[in-house]
Amino acid sequence: MPQTITFEQSRRVDQVALEQYGMDGLVLMENAGSSAARRIAQLHPGASVLVLCGKGNNGGDGYVIARHLQLLRCDVHLLATATPDELSGDAAVNARIAARSEMPITFVKSADDPDIQAAMDAADVIVDCLLGTGVSGSLRSPFQDIVALANAAAAVRIAIDVPTGWPAVQAETSIDAIAFVADRTLTFVAVKEGMNESDADRWTGVVEVIGIGVPKKLLDDLEIPTA
Ligand SMILES: NC(=O)C1=CN([C@@H]2O[C@H](COP(=O)(O)OP(=O)(O)OC[C@H]3O[C@@H](n4cnc5c(N)ncnc54)[C@H](O)[C@@H]3O)[C@@H](O)[C@H]2O)[C@@H](O)CC1
Ligand SMILES: [K+]
């Protein structure tokens, strides 16, 4: 397993790309999401894919992934914890594009909405873009319920950047602690700290790194391990 980076280092990469290199956050999100979608379509050509989207930039990645998966001839459905008007920044831009493209989107009003279970049952692949490096602590409602339903589904599970609810669950002793149990994690820039610990693959599954197109000099200067 290669060297790892902390969540803080990961956020620093984005910050330096934006502030010092003048890159646009939308470009980083597009690079991240389009590359992840290509990998998902390569692994599961023509699959029915359910993309779970949260409120932050990890959710934003999900809207990009969904748009590219449609172009790559997958059958895509979105399950979102917030409407585009409740989002901000790059995530809001991509959520609006998805809505204007008339992609099928189920907005979660309550965790026991039967549409959630139906969407999970119809999926060959569930892609987790609920929470990424912005997570803090154990999952709050409705995330625990959505994650529990996803974990019980027959579909293949793919986490984007980090499995939602991890790494808090790894240190958690409470029996209520829960995290997305992925068959595969497509993580951005570099493997995240903790993913190389012996029991982490219970949640991450196979870990693959996806580049987001930031300059090599930036990665070298921040001492970010590259493959
Ligand atoms: N320009 C960028 O910053 C880029 C970010 N990227 C993506 O952005 C992600 C980070 O995005 P954000 O910083 O917006 O954070 P997240 O998308 O991980 O989540 C932030 C949201 O989660 C909520 N939250 C935090 N802990 C919670 C908990 N325990 N239970 C329920 N809700 C909780 C917060 O209130 C906030 O609304 C990365 O993981 C990556 O996927 C990529 O798009 C690449 C570019
Ligand atoms: K995630």
Automatic annotation (TrEMBL):
YjeF N-terminal domain location: 10-220
Pfam families found in the cross-reference section: YjeF_N
UniProt binding sites for (6S)-NADPHX: 57-61, 132-138, 161
EC numbers, comma separated: 5.1.99.6
Catalysis performed (reactions): (6R)-NADHX = (6S)-NADHX; (6R)-NADPHX = (6S)-NADPHX
InterPro entries: YjeF_N_dom, YjeF_N_dom_sf, YJEFN_prot_NAXE-like
Enzyme type, top EC level: isomerase
Binding-site residues, K(+): 58, 128, 164
Cofactor note: Binds 1 potassium ion per subunit.
Gene Ontology MF, one: NAD(P)HX epimerase activity
Cofactor(s) demanded: K(+)
UniProt KW keywords: Isomerase, Metal-binding, NAD, NADP, Nucleotide-binding, Potassium
Entry function: Catalyzes the epimerization of the S- and R-forms of NAD(P)HX, a damaged form of NAD(P)H that is a result of enzymatic or heat-dependent hydration. This is a prerequisite for the S-specific NAD(P)H-hydrate dehydratase to allow the repair of both epimers of NAD(P)HX.
Family, per entry: Belongs to the NnrE/AIBP family.
Protein name: NAD(P)H-hydrate epimerase
